[in-house]
Amino acid sequence: MTFYVAREGSKLWRRVSGETKVELQLLAEKWKLLLAGIVCQYIHGLAARGVHYLHRPGPILQDVGFFLLPELGKDRAYISETVFSFVFFSFVLWTFHPFIYQSKRFYTVLLWRRILAFLVGSQVLRIITFYSTQLPGPNYHCREGSKLARLPRPDNILEVLLLNFPRGVIYGCGDLIFSSHMIFTLVFVLTYQKYGSRRFIKQVAWLIAIIQSLLIIASRKHYTVDVVVAWYTVNLVVFFVDKKLPEMPDRGTGTSPSLLPVSAKDKDSKSKEEQPLLLNGNSLESSDRRPRTQVNGKHLDDTNPVNGDAAMNST
User: Fold this and answer.
1) Residue 222: active-site member
2) Which residues pair with 277 in a beta bridge?
3) Domain Sphingomyelin synthase-like, which positions (predicted)?
4) Which residues pair with 294 in a beta bridge?
5) Choosing from 63, 75, 226, 288, which is the catalytic residue?
6) How many angstroms separate the CA atoms of 297 and 180, rounded?
7) How far apart, in whole angstroms, are the C-alpha atoms of residue 118 and residue 113?
8) Is 181 a catalytic residue?
9) Entry pTM
10) Which one of the listed residues 44, 52, 55, 181 is annotated catalytic?
11) What's residue 249's pLDDT?
12) 173, 55 in Cβ contact below 8 A?
C-alpha cells in the first residue's frame, strides 16, 4: 500500500512539475496581455467606486421583477453572494485542473487570456452605461436614510485609489446597469460550455446562472433591467471577441506550446507537412492515386483493373 501511494505521488509530482514548466513558458510570452486584463479589473473597480460619489438616493423605481419575486430581506441577502462565490471559486479551480488530471483540453494561461478579454469587453460597456445615467440604488444600503448611500468627499486621492477594499466593493451604489455579478457568471458559464467536457455540469451551470439572476433581483441588489441587459450584452461580447481571438489548440493532438496559437492556414500547412512519407520520398497522398475498381459496392485498393474486370465477369 505504501509503495502504491509513493508511486502515484511520484507520478502526480512529475505531472504537476511538467505542466508548470509548460505554463510558465506560455506565461513568459503572454504576461503582458494577462497583466493588462488584471489592471483593467482594478480600473473597473475604481470606476465603480467613483460613481458611488455621484449616487443620490431616491425612491425605488417601478420594477416588474420586484412585483413578481418576493423580497428576501436584509437578513437573507447573503444567499445570492453565496451562490456567486460558489460559481467563482469552483470555476477558478476548474481552470487549473490540467495541472493534476491527464485529460488536458486547454492551457490555463491561454484560457485566462480569453476570459480576461471577455471580462474587459463587458466591463468597458458597463462603465460607459452606469456613468451615462445614475439610478437610485434599490439595495438596502443605497436607500434614503442609509449612511452608505452617499459618500462624503474624499480627504485624499489614496482613499479613492485604495477602493476601501473590501467594504467599498461590497457596499457600492450607483453602478447598476448592468450587473457585474452576471458578467462574471455568464463569462464563466459560456467558457465552460465551450471548453468543458461534462454535459451534466454544463446544464447545471446554466441552471445556476438563471437562479443567480433571480436571487440578485429578489435580494434587491439590482433592477431587473440590469440582469436582462447583462444576459444579452455578455453573450454578444463573448461571441464577437471569441471570433477575433485565435482559437486555442486541442491538447489531445500533442501540440507543442511553441506553436501556440495557430491559425487555420497554419493548421492546413502543418497537416500537409505531417503526412507520412514513403521510402521514395513521396507522400502517401500523392503516391496513392491509382484507379480503384469498385466491385459489389466495395473499393479494391490493391486490385489490378484487368483482374477486377475478370472478377466482375465471373460474377
Assistant:
1) yes
2) 283
3) 172-240
4) 299
5) 226
6) 61
7) 9
8) yes
9) 0.76
10) 181
11) 73
12) yes
Selecting among 222, 242, 288, 309, the annotated active-site residue is 222
Alpha-carbon span 242 to 117, nearest angstrom? 9
Spatial contact of 111 and 195, defined as CB atoms under 8 Å apart: yes
Which of 11-20, 203-212, 302-311 has the least mean pLDDT? 302-311
Q: Which residue has the higher pLDDT, 33 or 262?
A: 33
Other Cβ atoms within 10 Å of 121 Cβ, number: 21
E-strand stretches of the chain:
293-295, 298-300
Dist CA 48 CA 172 (whole Å):
7
DSSP structure string for 51-109: HHHH----PPPP-HHHHHS----GGGTHHHHHHHHHHHHHHHHHHTGGGT-S---S-HH
CA contacts within 13 A on the Cβ side of 119: 24
Task: Provide the residue count of the chain.
Answer: 315
What's the rounded Cα separation, in Å, for the pair 180 and 227? 9
Report whether 300 contacts 283 (CB < 8 A): no
Q: Is 97 a catalytic residue?
A: no
Cell numbers found for residue 142: 443605497
- Element housing 199 (H / E): helix 199-218
Instruction: Give the residue carrying C-alpha cell 452606469.
Output: 130
The answer, yes or no, to whether residue 272 has pLDDT greater than 80, is: no
> What totals of helices (H) and strands (E) does the chain contain, helices first?
12, 2
How many Cα atoms occupy the beta-carbon half-sphere of 68 within 13 Å?
8
pLDDT tens, position by position, 81-139: 999 999 999 999 999 988 887 777 789 999 999 999 999 999 999 999 999 999 999 99
